[in-house]
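so my prof wants the structure for this chain in the tokens format not the other one, which i didnt know existed until like an hour ago. anyway here's the sequence
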Amino acid sequence: MSALDEQFGVTAAGSTVEGEIRAGVTTFLTMAYILVVNPSMLSNFGATGIPFGDALFATAVAAFVGCIVMGLWANLPFALAPGMGLNAYFTFAVVLGMGIPWDVALAAVFVEGLLFLAMSMPQIPVIGGWRSQMINSIPTDLKIATGAGIGMFLAIIGLREMGWIMDDGATLVNIAATETFGLDHGGLISMVCLILTAVLMARGQKGAIIIGIAVASIWGWATEAYDPYNDFAAGGAGWASVNATWPDITAVGFVGMPEETMMAALSALGDVGSADGTTVGMFLMVMITFLFVDIFDTAGTLYSVGRQAGYVDENDVLMNSDEAFASDAAATIVGAMLGTSTTTTYIESVAGVEEGGKTGLVAVTVGVLMLTGLFFENLFQNIPTFAAAMALVIIGAMMMRQAADIDWGDAEMALPAFLTMVLMPFTYSIADGIAWGVISYCAIKIGMQKWDELNNVMWALFVFMIMFYLGPGDTNTFDWLFETMGLN
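here's what i got, hopefully its the right format
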């Protein structure tokens, strides 16, 4: 214990080793679903060609590497794993939509990770340290709005997975048929445990979120509760069982090293631009998209969670941001070589922060627990989705506190901040929310003839984002340029 205290500066940070480990367990429980969801999505029941076992191994090891680097080098309580949204883009847009082979898509992730790492290291000429410079150049209120927007994003994810909201052809979203909720329905169980968790937190109970998840899981297992989010026939995602079942704790076995995906990304790079391979333009477009989303997902998450944890100083600068950015870049590179899509910092890290986590020991704890996915696949697969989802709503509520710090009286900031917040849940993308917040902010400054208030980084972001989202015809500017140059 004393060695851990000295390594991470736990006492100096105002915490305890036991408290940091508990915070790490809390964060892990809120994001353990990725050990099942990411391999399921990347393999897509065999449609992509990526084996489930290979993807599970890559998911666990990429998360482990990212968390260990984050904890030991940056000493921040932020956890990493392959990103939701990025894995969906990888599977459904790139591999199944564009028809790009999965190994070439992994190669794009690998190259993106290398560029990401270069932009995170101040020692590298021209682009080194650009990521920290970028996040520090965005106006404070927009960054605060990012945190509040992530809270709203978490809330809509959590409520959907709890079974409380559903899609609606007329109104887009609607409340579920709550009158059908019984004692064996995940919707009722999750809402009761959501309120229970809130009460425990209000009473200062340590480990409140863990208790809430545990109660919801045991209740669900005991009643074989219906899990609405996983009912594919009723419009759910269908990633796990429709009914909660007790995990078989005797089903322990090592997943095994990847047989097909190991180093496939490196060999696939040689096929890019060949007669029978993916065109250079298509490869660049996919790589740029991965890079763009990764930059803004990670930047927004790191700043928002860092601010919640008290690691943003009086000059609005995130502590150890270069090291934090490099952590997720390193994990992305390792993950791509093993067989998974982009690894990023998780917004669920706020769960550990709310439990009192303050140091890198939290991240290391999550990383070690992620490796258990190589042995206890059955256990994590049986945690009901509704049980972990209620924690996301709690975290979302905590993150919304930041919205009070925005200067809503500033007419030039009100709309950009608002768009940043609401577009995250409405587009299901952190990157889209940040992007259109920046675009609208710059456009308003230009309209007010206050272009001198825009720094060089904001001008660059404005131009890049316009090119990314808009362009001639039905393509964006990058697609049009590649086509014009004959690269597509």
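also thought this was worth mentioning. The beta strands are 80-82, 165-168, 172-175, 343-345.
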